[in-house]
Design brief:
This protein is mainly alpha-helical. It is built from seven helices and no strands.
Length: 220
């Protein structure tokens, strides 16, 4: 019975890794759809979010069954509860990737992002993928140093977000109000996506140590 119990805990962890990889891929494809004006790709990202939702529902059902059957305490209870919170972060990340794809679809065949902002948006998309890939790896390894590093790596996303606003506030902005609104939303979606990746890593720190990340220091 105990082996089956731990297999269920492992299955929950595996589900979180699958979710993280799916939403990271979704944001990468949404970025391509956005910058290339690829309607078919945008539609696939939008439709694919249902798979993320299905994974979250399955994970929640597993966790609830474990709570009901096993009534875990101490570390095991922390694993189950923290996993539920991580699944919520990852589900929301999938929604954000879908939002980016929906913006690409809404403006098709017109470009959503001005050509002079392509490089910045591309970097935000690539960074989003990289941060979520790091989050998936942290779920697997439970490495505290990597988890804490992820938050530091997120500083670059904050820089890129500020850079977007500098473009929007520049007197030379000549792309109109509608495009300004789109770019503002896009920047916010990437910034929030990165925040969720950081939140997942922080939850892993709590899962391992029982302490909030602000009270944990790296070993290197």
């Amino acid at each position: 019975m105990r082996d089956a119990y731990h297999q269920e805990l492992d299955a929950i962890s595996d589900g979180l890794v699958d979710m993280a990889r799916l939403v990271g891929s979704a944001m990468g494809r949404a970025t391509t759809a956005l910058l290339d004006g690829d309607l078919e790709l945008a539609e696939s990202v939008i439709a694919g979010d249902e798979q993320v939702d299905d994974l979250q529902r399955d994970l929640e059902n597993r966790a609830i069954e474990l709570l009901a059957r096993q009534q875990p305490v101490a570390t095991d209870l922390r694993i189950v509860v923290t996993s539920l919170r991580m699944s919520a972060d990852l589900e929301r990340s999938g929604d954000l990737a879908q939002h980016v794809a929906k913006l690409a679809r809404r403006r098709f065949p017109d470009p959503t992002v001005p050509r002079d902002l392509h490089r910045t948006i591309l970097e935000m998309g690539q960074l989003s993928q990289r941060l979520m890939a790091q989050a998936a790896e942290v779920i697997i390894t439970k490495n505290l140093d990597d988890a804490l590093q992820l938050e530091r790596d997120d500083d670059r996303m904050d820089e890129l977000h500020r850079l977007l606003f500098q473009h929007l506030l520049d007197d030379r902005w000549n792309h109109g109000v509608e495009t300004a609104v789109d770019v503002t939303l896009i920047g916010r979606y990437y910034e929030r996506f990165a925040d969720h990746a950081v939140a997942v890593a922080k939850r892993v720190v709590f899962l391992v140590t029982g302490e909030h990340p602000d009270g944990v220091t790296a070993t290197i």
